[in-house]
Amino acid sequence: MRNILTIAAREIQSYFVSPLAYVVIFFFVFIIGFIFTLGMLGPQTEATMQPLFHSMIFVSLMLAPVLTMGLLAQETSSGSIEMLMTKPVRDAEVAVGKFLGAVALYVAILVVTLEFPIMYEIWGNPDWGLVLSGYIGLLVCGIAFMAVGTFASSVTDNQIAAWLIGTALLLFFWLVGWLGYSSTTWVTDVAKRISVYENFGDFTRGIVDGKNVLFFLSMAVIFLFMAVRAIENRRTV
Amino acid sequence: MIRVEGLTKYYGPHRAIHDVSFEVAEGEIVAFLGPNGAGKTTAMRIITGFIPASAGTAQVAGCDVYAESVAARRHIGYVPEHPALYPEMRVRQYLGFCGRLYGMGSAEIAEAQERVIATCGLEERADYIIQRLSLGFRQRVCLAQALIHDPEVLILDEPTIGLDPNQIRQVRELIRGLAGDHTVLLSTHILPEAQAVCERVVIINHGEIVAEDTPQALTAQLRQAQTVFVKVAQPADNISRLLREMPGVSAVEKVGGDPGAYLVDTAMDSDLRDDIAKFVIEHDWGLLELRAIEMSLEDVFRQLTTQEKGVA
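The joint structure predicted for all components is written out below.
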């Protein structure tokens, strides 16, 4: 556990001494702020976060692979992985530590975006229950995204490739839900169940369903497990 | 302290090392010597638990490096061939990070940081960002991180590569200073380094161990063909032929640019210096100089790695 926290802390430090963290935070807040402002300018605006949550989850999906692409790919290409893996740490501790570092940065981004519901509170009367469920959704969903990104970073030593693999996987989990509307067979049923979009929807409506939470957390566990296996495999190549 | 038995490693169809076995006793400094690509790094990566072996076992401080990998790694300080540090971290911060991974407490780390910073001569660079350090200082940071937990075993893969002569001397002194308290296995392709630093040499070529002994003994082993340098004042025209006809002499070679100087190869493990001296005096050539040519580790190494013939 200590090793995991040590690795996660180093990862967070490294995010904040590079421009990456600031660029991503700026980008995220800028886009969401833009959408927020557009919404405010419309007639008869409601003080509701619901449409904003949909934008936020999609921007998270696009930015998650940017945050995670370097986690393991950079270590492998620079060779620092050799220094790390010859310390008394387990492969799983390395994967989970790095993943948690990325999750921590994601949480920091979410904290910055709290300005939007706060602004609604100042000029309107938002439903704080809905805000809470939306943020719980963003958190568990983000955890799953970071795990997918960690996995993508573990299978290659090229950061661009890691970013592409991460984006492709996440877009798959986003778009697969569209199959669900074509007809009704067991395929479309499965497609709907593994869709990020479908599983996230309830959170924006103020519903925290254990099924959805479990879906995202299982997704995280599965991809982290695959990341650990990928690290183990790289040792043998 | 380090026990390696029958290590074999394949990278796909390519065999990097084959049946490598050796031991390093506690407190010993051993050089792992071989040309580039001989398999030194592969063997060291297996011993440090970075990659698994295809066959064979390795133990460090009684722990199997595969089955009890994490326990074995606690006893090891490792400097890889291409040390890659985290460039954005500061030296002290990086050493602290490494200390925590070795399970050290905060007070212990603070003490160890100062100890290794002093040992490795990093006092003035302790708060630098690693990216801003020269190669020589980065190498020292690497050495410092390997020493942070005061390990019993140090594994150094080409620790002086890329350093200038002054830095090389400093690193060698540092390594020699570690003898006794630490067991050191160091790889190098530079012979004087092995001769200067180590008590014992393991020579590896094409992935196989070809010799293992002290630098002195290895040199002696190959002295079956001793060479004698002889210089005379008035060489006769037929001196080469006459010398070659002496019993026990296999070859005579004139030393270019030095009139009257000859290299006499003796085939057997016998000392012909006395016979040659008498022979020269009998012929009244005027003996100026006579000495046995010491075979350096370099000659041994060349002989072992070019003929592919084992002598151990």
